[in-house]
Each structure stands twice: as C-alpha cells, then as structure tokens.
Specification:
Layout: H1 6-32, E1 40-49, E2 55-66, E3 70-72, H2 74-84, H3 86-107, E4 114-119, H4 121-124, H5 129-140, E5 147-152, H6 153-158, H7 160-171, E6 176-182, H8 189-194, E7 199-202, H9 204-208, H10 214-229, E8 233-237, H11 242-250, E9 255-257, H12 267-283
The structure holds ligand C2E and magnesium ion (3 copies).
Length: 292
C-alpha cells in the first residue's frame, strides 16, 4: 500500500514543504512590521538572591502577539528575526521598553532592582549599538549598572577578539554584562578571563537534572567555583524545585531564576510579586532563599 501511494506521498510532501515555505514567508513579512504595529510585548521573570531571599531583579523576555496566531514564543521568532534582520528593530524596541520599565520600578520604590535584557549577536555587531544603549540609559535616567545585558556564550565565542572589543566598549557606559546559557557553547576558560563579564548564567539544561545526573551536579558546582574565582556572580536559570535551590545554596550560587519562584509575568503581576516578596523577606528572620 505504501509503495503504491509513494508517488502521491511525494507530491503531498512537496505540497507541504511548499505550503510551509509560503507560511514562513508570510510570517517573515508580518514580523517586519510587528514592532510598528505594537505587537511586541514583554514579560518579566524575577531573579532571587539565594542568600537574602530578596528579588534582585528581573529578566525581560519578549513575546509576539500575532493577530491570528496569538502569542508566539521568542524561540520561534527570534531565529527568524535574526535571519531577516528584523531583530535590529525588535532589539531596539526591547531595550527602550526595558529602560522605561526599570525606571517605573525604581519610581515604585524598588530602587535596588536590575533588569536583564537579552541581546542578539546581530545587535551586538551593529555599529550604533553602544550609542543606542547609552541613549536609552540617559533618556530614562536609570543607573547604568542596573541594566544587565545578556549575551549567549555561542555569540561571544564566534569571534572572540571582536567580541572582547565590542563588550569593552559596552562596559564603558557602565552597564553589566552576563554570559547567557553558559556551558552549552565551547568557551575556553582563558577567553572567559579576558572577557569584561560580570555574571555567568548556568544553562537550564544542567540545572534541570543536576540532582539526578551527578555529572551535571558536578558541572554546576564547577561553574559556580569557576565564576567566583574569576570574580563573577553566578546565576542559575530554570530552577523548579526546592531541592535544586538547596543544592545551589550549598554550592554558594548567588542568584536563581525559575518557575519555583515565578513564571515570566506581565509588569503588573511582577509588581504584585515584588510587593508580596518584600513583605515576606521583612517578616522572616531566617532567610532560606526558598519561596514560603
Ligand atoms: P533565555 O534567555 O535563556 O531565557 C530563559 C528561558 O527559560 C525563557 O524562555 C524562560 O521562560 C524559560 N524558563 C525560565 N525559568 C524556567 C523554568 O523554571 N523551567 C523552564 N522549563 N523554563 C524556564 P522564553 O521566554 O521562551 O525565551 C527563550 C529564549 O528566547 C531566551 O532564552 C532568549 O535566548 C530568547 N529571547 C527572549 N527574549 C528575547 C529578546 O528580547 N531578545 C533576544 N535577542 N532574545 C530573546
Ligand atoms: Mg537570557
Ligand atoms: Mg539563558
Ligand atoms: Mg537557556
């Protein structure tokens, strides 16, 4: 039966691929105007200090509210935007929106908060990137050191010498730099030492099963020790259980982020979470770093 339908299957397959290409062309065109159509949105995920239990800051994560398809995840549209160049406009919008968001949080009384913004390697290589960051920092008046730019390990490692130069220019504004998804790329430790980094983010894939897979447990511990020996702060992403938090605290990890504390939420929910959390921290004498 399969054989006799082989020809049809093949045609079906071609038609399918054809349709998918057409669909992705449509998506591409829609993505090009998504910013001007106000279709980009930000959600925020708190980052919790593992010693004090206080919220240190939040990472901004972009979403695309598509007119017919609803919310589209960045995992789907960021790679597309990077291929078409739409990432430049999206990235600028994200940066500006984040500086204004942080200004509001500081005005709401959460002056210690930082905001972490994901930066695509394409953005990093734009000649006016430093000026763009500087512009929004100055226009909003936020303290530059409260803006954390997250750059993926693979982005940095593509061209190490150039990356070091670009990142040093960025550091001159006074922003903080974090290396995202650490452990997934192929960074050499000697390069890491040369990078003007402030923070390492341990990739979720190691955190996910570090208690079940002793190798990953060892890797997580090693990344934390390495980070500290280079004078960097270390943050674990994707923490989901109290046991993971306990292990990270034993390894003296500095900060954690993950569903155990809060999923990425809109600004209103974030502010509510912040108020609740600061009440809790005030009312507890023994901080466990765990949500209560
Ligand atoms: P990322 O920067 O590594 O962000 C962490 C991702 O892990 C987020 O997915 C977040 O929702 C998810 N996550 C956080 N905690 C947990 C947890 O406890 N369990 C699980 N299973 N997942 C958790 P999201 O929002 O889908 O973002 C995916 C990626 O898209 C980000 O990875 C980042 O690389 C990229 N991205 C997001 N926003 C932007 C942006 O504004 N610009 C750029 N260039 N990339 C962005
Ligand atoms: Mg990130
Ligand atoms: Mg990450
Ligand atoms: Mg990751």
């Amino acid at each position: 039966l399969a054989k006799s339908q082989g020809g049809n299957n093949y045609q079906f397959y071609v038609a399918n691929v054809d349709q998918r290409i057409r669909e992705s062309k449509v998506l591409e065109r829609q993505l090009a105007t998504a910013v001007e159509q106000n279709q980009m949105e930000l959600v925020f995920q708190p980052q919790v200090n593992l010693v004090s239990g206080e919220v240190r800051g939040a990472e901004a994560l972009v979403r695309w509210r598509h007119p017919d398809r609803g919310l589209i995840s960045p995992a789907e549209f960021i790679p597309l935007a990077e291929r078409t160049g739409a990432i430049v406009g999206i990235g600028e919008w994200v940066l500006k929106a984040c500086c204004y968001a942080l200004k509001r949080w500081h005005e709401a009384g959460f002056q210690h908060l930082t905001i972490s913004v994901n930066v695509s390697p394409i953005q990093l290589h734009q000649s006016d990137m430093v000026a763009t960051v500087k512009r929004w920092v100055e226009e909003t008046g936020i303290p530059a050191q409260h803006l954390v730019l997250e750059i993926t390990e693979t982005a940095v490692m593509d061209n190490v010498d150039l990356a070091i130069k670009l990142l040093k220019n960025m550091k001159e504004i006074g922003v903080q730099l974090a290396i995202d998804d650490f452990g997934t790329g192929y960074s050499s430790l000697s390069y890491l030492k040369k990078m003007p980094m402030d923070e390492i983010k341990i990739d979720r894939s190691f955190v996910l099963d570090m208690l079940e897979d002793p190798d990953n447990g060892t890797i997580v511990d090693a990344i934390i020790q390495l980070g500290h020996s280079l004078g960097l702060s270390v943050i674990a992403e994707g923490t989901e259980t109290p046991e993971q938090i306990k292990y990270l605290q034993e390894c003296e990890c500095d900060v954690a982020q993950g569903f155990i504390y809060c999923k990425p939420v809109n600004e209103e929910s974030l502010l509510r979470f912040l108020s609740q959390q600061s009440e809790k921290v005030k009312s507890t004498t023994h901080h466990s770093g765990l949500p209560h």
